[in-house]
Structures are given as C-alpha cells and as structure tokens.
C-alpha cells in the first residue's frame, strides 16, 4: 500500500477529537445501549471482541489502515497518539499473522492510551489478559507481522464492517465495539440515558410481575400478520 500521492501525507497528525467530558460520560453506558439509540448501527462485526473478560474501553479513534500482516502504520499511530486515544486498525479481518503483541500493548499502556481495537489477529494473549490493558481483536495467531508496507494513519477506515473517522467515539465492552460519529455523540448520550431509565423501569416491573410482557407486543404481532385485527395474546 503506497501513499495516495506524493502530495498527500500518509500520516495525519492533527485531528479533532470527541471531548474528554463526552468520553467520560459515554464510558458509563454499555456498548449495546449506545448501539440501540444510534439506530442499531455502528457496531463492529462480532469477530472483534475483548481478548480477556472485563476489558472495557472508551475514547476518540486514531484510525489505521494496514496491508494484511504488516504493522508499520500501527507503530506510526502509537508514536503520535495522545493519552486517552483508542487506536482502531483496519486489518482486513486477516488472521494469518498477529499485528500486535505484548511489547506494543505495553507501549500503548505506558503512553496512556485508552485501548486498541484491531480487525485482525493479535498474539501473546495470556500476557495481554494478565496485564488487563483493553485490547479487542478478531482472533489470535502466534505468527508475527512484517514492518515494511506503507499504510495510512488518521484517514476514514472500515473496520469490522463499520465506517470510522478519526476522532469518532469508540466504546467497547464484553459485547463488542460500537463507533459513534464525533458530531453525534452529545445527542446519542441524551438518548442513551433515556433508554437506560426506561429499561431500568421495565426490569423493575418485570421483577414485580407487574408487566411480564412488553406493552407493544400485540400491536407488532398484528402489524407482522401474526395476529388478526382485534386479536390479542
């Protein structure tokens, strides 16, 4: 992969990030809640999951595109990322070679980054799990990468089927990873709180056996043709 042209940089150093205040607020919500209120879109493919149980992350995206099996551009991203950033790598879903391991993860942790998300393989999984720094990946492979093919840093990418722009909000937990466009984060957080409040009330009603089934069920069954007009369960 070569640079776009001789006049276009492969590495964009300055980006506009979602604010730390919004990142902190977003970190209180499940990825599933954010995905729901964002229209049930923006989630990465389920193959991208935490390397170990309990790993969570939230932060602005530093985006990286690499050729399969090569991590040179990830090293560049590590060099320019700021504390709190989450490096997100479009590794084409390739699992033939790992793109990071314990050394690069330790560098990310000591640099104060918020985490790593790779649509690709990683290695040293036992060490990564023990360390606890949040790493989300599509799989594992002991084979190491090359470091010789040009990639791009801080351009729009597609990782795990989701479009991600530099500075977008990335949230990951046990269920996977969701991306929220930077300019939409504030609105989504308002909706997320409303959904949490509604779901909390719904669960409380279920536990009290006051409403064991959703109020909308009959209407939707009729709309789908599963119940006749006027028929109820």
From TrEMBL:
The keyword Magnesium applies. Keywords: Magnesium, Metal-binding. The keyword Magnesium applies. Its cofactor is a divalent metal cation; Mg(2+). SUPFAM superfamilies: RraA-like (SSF89562). Signal peptide: none annotated. Substrate binds at residues 101-104, 123. One of its GO terms (molecular function) is metal ion binding. InterPro entries: RraA/RraA-like, RraA/RraA-like_sf. Mg(2+) binds at residue 124. This is Putative 4-hydroxy-4-methyl-2-oxoglutarate aldolase.
